[in-house]
Amino acid sequence: MYQPSHFVEADPAVLLSLMRARPLATVAINGEDGPLANHLPLLAVEEDGALKLRGHVARANPMWRLLEDAPQALAVFQGDDAYISPSWYPAKAEHGKVVPTWNYMVAHARGRLRAVDDPVWLRSLLDQLTRAREAGFPQPWQVADAPADYLDKMLRAIVGIELTVSRLDGKYKLSQNQDGATRLSVRAGLAGSGDERAKALAGEMPG
């Protein structure tokens, strides 16, 4: 990832917060015919001093069969993003030397990816994933709410994956390369755009 110094986000706690808020990751490995990417919700777990990302794929998905030697993998977590209009820049009225750009937040997790073909491990993972995502509902659904025979059938149809993170990188491109007046104007433009993701991004921008 191209990483200008003013956009670096190196705080693991900040990146972990993004990964847990936006758990749908793009997971990429080198496939037999080139890069192979899958889009998977991952659960971030801190265990024995290591950060591990856990999820599952359909047994019919060929990716898990490529993980026998635990290859290097990349998981990309995308935060809020928005188009930045040159019309928000005070410099537009001064000299017009402005161009559009795009602001965004992203976390990259690299490490070894392994397959876990273990129904006990998978059931525990499904319980954890479900609790995490159902927590905000007034009557949270539980895995145990489904019939046991149906669950057994579903478990046989999936395979677990686990990425042990060896490197975590973050890029928060939030107009840090602009002066204070420009950032203030961009923040106001995002906040008033009517786009919920743009409004959320405005709240993340530095002063």
Topology readout:
Elements: H1 12-21, E1 24-31, E2 34-41, E3 43-47, E4 50-58, E5 72-84, H2 91-94, E6 101-116, H3 119-134, H4 148-156, E7 158-173, H5 180-191, H6 196-204
Helix pairs in contact: 5-6
Question: Explain this structure to me?
Answer:
By secondary structure, the chain is of the alpha+beta class. It has a single domain, classed as Roll (Pnp Oxidase, Chain A). The protein is 29% helix and 36% strand. The protein has a 7-stranded antiparallel β-sheet. The two termini are 25 Å apart.
List keywords for this structure.
207 residues, alpha+beta, Pnp Oxidase, Chain A, 7 strands, TR_PAI2-type, Split_barrel_FMN-bd, FMN-binding negative transcriptional regulator
Quick rundown:
The chain is an alpha+beta fold and 207 residues long. The chain has helices at residues 12-21, 91-94, 119-134, 148-156, 180-191, 196-204; strands at residues 24-31, 34-41, 43-47, 50-58, 72-84, 101-116, 158-173.
**Number of distinct helices:** 6
Low-confidence stretches: none
Mean pLDDT rating: 94
Please tell me the CATH architecture by its name. Answer: Roll
Helix content: 25-40%
Pfam family, one: FMN_bind_2
Protein name: FMN-binding negative transcriptional regulator
InterPro entries: Split_barrel_FMN-bd, TR_PAI2-type
Organism: Chromobacterium piscinae
